[in-house]
Amino acid sequence: MAKPLDYESLNENVKKTAYAVRGELYLRASELQKEGKKIIFTNVGNPHALGQKPLTFPRQVVALCQAPFLLDDPNVGLLFPADAIARAKHYLQLTSGGLGAYSDSRGIPGVRKEVAEFIERRDGYPTDPELIFLTDGASKGVMQMLNAIIRNENDGILVPVPQYPLYSAAITLYGGSLVPYYLEEEANWSLDFNNIRQSIASARSKGITVRAMVIINPGNPTGQCLSEANIRELLRFCFLENLVLLADEVYQQNIYQDERPFISARKILFDMGPPLSKEVQLVSFHTVSKGYWGECGQRGGYFEMTNLSPKTVDEIYKVASISLSPNVPGQIFMGLMVNPPKPGDISYFKFEQESKAIMESLRKRARIMTDGFNSCRNVVCNFTEGAMYSFPQIRLPARAIEAAKSAGKAPDVLYCLKLLEATGISTVPGSGFGQKEGVFHLRTTILPAEEDMPAIMESFKKFNDAFMEEYEDYRGYSRM
Amino acid sequence: MSFIKTPAVPVESINPKVKDCEYAVRGEIFNHAQRLQEELEKNPGSRPFDEITYCNLGNPQALGQKPITFFRQVLALCEYPALLDSDEAHKIFSSDAISRAKKILSTLTGKSTGAYSHSKGAKGLREMIADGIALRDGYPANPEDIFLTDGASAAVHMIMQLLIRSENDGILCPIPQYPLYSAAITLHGGTLVPYYLSESNNWGLEVFELKGRLDLARENGISVKAMVVINPGNPTGQVLSESNQQEIVELCRKEGLVLLADEVYQDNVYVKDKKFISFKRIIRSGYRDDEISVVSFQSISKGYYGECGKRGGYIELCGFREDVKDQIYKVASVNLCSNTTGQILASLIMNPPKPGEESHKLFFSEKEAILSSLGRRAKALEDAFNSMEGVSCQKAEGAMYLFPRIKLPNKAIDAADKAGMVPDAFYALRLLDATGLVLVPGSGFGQVPGTWHVRTTILPDESKIPDIVSRLKTFHESFMREFQD
């Protein structure tokens, strides 16, 4: 009799799911690390792991919330500034019994109100805290929404290629169909509506009902900031095709150019007015893991629903209530992120200083990395306009591709493995994110410390140029 | 440009599994209670009670239970490590809290609670948990078989997702059960195969009942993959005897069932004649790894620590092959990792201060105070229910709940039918409207058809118990008078 835990008896969807960010390359890198090799992990957007320091103010507030007895200590003022103390008291009061109690399944109402106020300040349009749900990280929110939408394998979700593989993994896990639409690398990874229309038509001809569309803005892994025109056209498209738009905006604080600042999909939707603003269904995601906060380990996130029917919202609430509540410290981090120290607050100056330093450094590193990649043989890299990644195109010579085939590996996987062995730099092959047939990339983060960057890029160039020398035929490729 | 809309497929047609699943603990009665609370806040005195008392959910700190000081000291230091270097801190924090925080930080990626950890949870923390398990059971535990999760509930979902391929896959669940299981099985598209606990036998688990249900399901074409055992029980509160546990393990081995051992109440045992014994220990003392597979669930939300809001828990896998463990790891990695505060707490509850350590005295007194109070409250409420006409309540040997049976008169059942409600929900709603007490109808947990129960927690502050008892009794008497046959 086949046992329930035989590999064969497991849920097929689980077996089919892939998530390259912590896949083959990462596992190999961990092995090498155990053997004593120095590894630079650039496979995941994990700022604190690479030396970024947490912002001081939120840590002070959360520490006080974790240990409220500190507030009763006469010496507390020697350890914590007065505004951190006040803010801790404020959040403790909003909880239903401190950090150890399950909160409302949608998140603490007072924090959701702070999120709503943030959104209103950002966009200039009011929003309803009842339509904002806090989650254990944005990933959980994405999974909840996809689980609500996907009924069976005939339900399709439009996903950008390249994409952050949470989307492909979740769609597989929930038994739906991924409908890819290709971003245009030569046009700075912008949306190509002809391609999108083709994708949706092709899916429909196969009997797929396309229900939703994902955009990631700023992009992961691609780093582009979408233009307002692009987003408008996208919203019109969703209106016409009756798609719910899932707007992953977790990198909205990470903007490294001034031509295209971040504008939320919601703001643009409301700017467009009725009928779109009243009819297009939109879910927007945000997190404390990225930006200049980088508090990945806290698992704090939210999603905001626009134009979903009350019955649908109720069902989503019901599912959230089965898991009782998101973690409360993560919720407080979210409150602090949307409601940071203001000018005049005691902690404002230090907070501003710390934030600016991180943002300026990220901007510099985005530039260093892009330029560094572009100086390498057969490597072309779009500028990282936003988010935390660099996604250079590696023009692999034909012989390298053959060598990969013989080794039974995807060509970019082979390249990344060799890069890892030679330099200790642990990246994620582009095949983990999706790419056009025959075009190869890798994703790295821009997170290694600024002072380490030149050496890292140097090390990469040395490896790459030697690799190209080894595998190139005498014709070579011309660089853009 | 003219807009031509294609035929609509509204999001209203969402996943039917989402629509089908239910969770009574935060269901209709709870929603009604929230509305009443809002009303009371707007119009104080508008109801025959001053406050809503939430007895629907095992949420100790929401009802006044204090967290364990040592744990919170360590968490504060981990969250704001600048404290570790300050002189003032050494006056406020005990030295063993400081050294524990330093040790924990050294195990974290980037030495920060702000970095994603390993997807199984930080290795050093898993090692601490493994040590705690070994101390508890007398058998070693492997940190590689431990997965830290955002609460035990998240782990239940993970395992159900792994095991269930279609509605032809069944999971044996106790009736009454904690409705996370029924909800998760529905959400993941499987079939719940019920086995009834024996109320008259203090909610005991009878193997012939189990076997009967298993065989029946198989006859109906269900491939039964696993069996859930909640020990100590929720909502029923029984602590299984060791011999009962041996029978269960043997049955699972024989029938090729994965044993899902929900042991989140392992630190809540109130009777002197029973002890918590982990299923892991039962297996290690008699079975080989290839004979039986077990998943043991633990949580930081219960016990004497009650840290529900932090969302921490873990599973320990026993008798799992590498290729299956790889799949679990892969699914865990899609969410990257569980929250670090929860991970830290899981390592603390499994490795609390020991005798001789600076914080032990305070820790022990806090722990004992909470546990002895829980025992007293359990007894007081049990006695109260048993004194009520037509109500019988089994002893709460452990966990945090009482599940009294109420013999509802036929008139009440008719009234419930007319109101379109299940009889115990009707009773619970009337109780709420009259007293402000929020209990969960037994129908939310499952019960033998024709019997009615309600579940209450034993968590309201001890000082409030006499008043709660008197409100319950008064309501019940008047309800029985109103509906007497």
TrEMBL record, chain A:
| Needed co-factor(s) | pyridoxal 5'-phosphate
Q: What is its EC number?
A: 2.6.1.2, 2.6.1.4, 2.6.1.44
Query: Transferase among the record's keywords?
Result: yes
- One Pfam family, short name please? Aminotran_1_2
Give the metabolic or biological pathway.
Photosynthesis; C4 acid pathway; Amino-acid degradation; L-alanine degradation via transaminase pathway; pyruvate from L-alanine: step 1/1
Aminotransferase class I/classII large domain: residues covered: 83-449
Could you state one GO cellular component term attached to this entry?
peroxisome
Any one Gene Ontology MF annotation carried by this entry is: glycine:2-oxoglutarate aminotransferase activity
Tell me which SUPFAM superfamilies the record gives. Answer: PLP-dependent transferases
Any one GO biological process: photorespiration
Which domain of life does the UniProt lineage start with?
A: Eukaryota
Q: Which keywords belong to this entry?
A: Aminotransferase, Pyridoxal phosphate, Transferase
What reaction(s) does this enzyme catalyze? Answer: glyoxylate + L-alanine = glycine + pyruvate; glycine + 2-oxoglutarate = glyoxylate + L-glutamate
User: Is Transferase included in the keywords of this UniProt record?
Assistant: yes
Q: State the similarity comment.
A: Belongs to the class-I pyridoxal-phosphate-dependent aminotransferase family. Alanine aminotransferase subfamily.
The record's annotation in PANTHER family points to: ALANINE AMINOTRANSFERASE (PTHR11751), GLUTAMATE--GLYOXYLATE AMINOTRANSFERASE 2 (PTHR11751:SF373)
Q: What exactly does this protein do? A: Transfer of C3 units between the cytosol of mesophyll and bundle sheath cells to maintain a nitrogen-carbon balance in the C4-dicarboxylic pathway.
Per UniProt, subunit arrangement is: Homodimer.
Query: Protein name, please?
Result: Alanine aminotransferase 2
UniProtKB/TrEMBL annotation, chain B:
Of which family is this protein a member?
Answer: Belongs to the class-I pyridoxal-phosphate-dependent aminotransferase family. Alanine aminotransferase subfamily.
Q: Return the InterPro entries for the record.
A: ALAT1/2-like, Aminotransferase_I/II_large, PyrdxlP-dep_Trfase, PyrdxlP-dep_Trfase_major, PyrdxlP-dep_Trfase_small
Its assembly, as annotated, is:
Homodimer.
Describe the task this protein carries out. Answer: Transfer of C3 units between the cytosol of mesophyll and bundle sheath cells to maintain a nitrogen-carbon balance in the C4-dicarboxylic pathway.
Cofactor(s) needed by this chain: pyridoxal 5'-phosphate
Would the keyword Transferase turn up in this protein's UniProt record? yes
Transferase among keywords: yes
SUPFAM superfamilies membership: PLP-dependent transferases (SSF53383)
What pathway is this protein said to act in by its record? Photosynthesis; C4 acid pathway; Amino-acid degradation; L-alanine degradation via transaminase pathway; pyruvate from L-alanine: step 1/1
GO molecular function per UniProt: L-alanine:2-oxoglutarate aminotransferase activity; pyridoxal phosphate binding
Q: Which UniProt keywords apply?
A: Aminotransferase, Pyridoxal phosphate, Transferase
Query: Sorted alphabetically, which Pfam families does this protein's record hold?
Result: Aminotran_1_2 (PF00155)
Question: Which PANTHER family does the record cross-reference, listed alphabetically?
Answer: ALANINE AMINOTRANSFERASE, ALANINE TRANSAMINASE
Protein's name according to its UniProt entry: Alanine aminotransferase 2
As recorded in UniProt, its EC number(s) are 2.6.1.2
Q: Which residues form the Aminotransferase class I/classII large domain?
A: 101-471
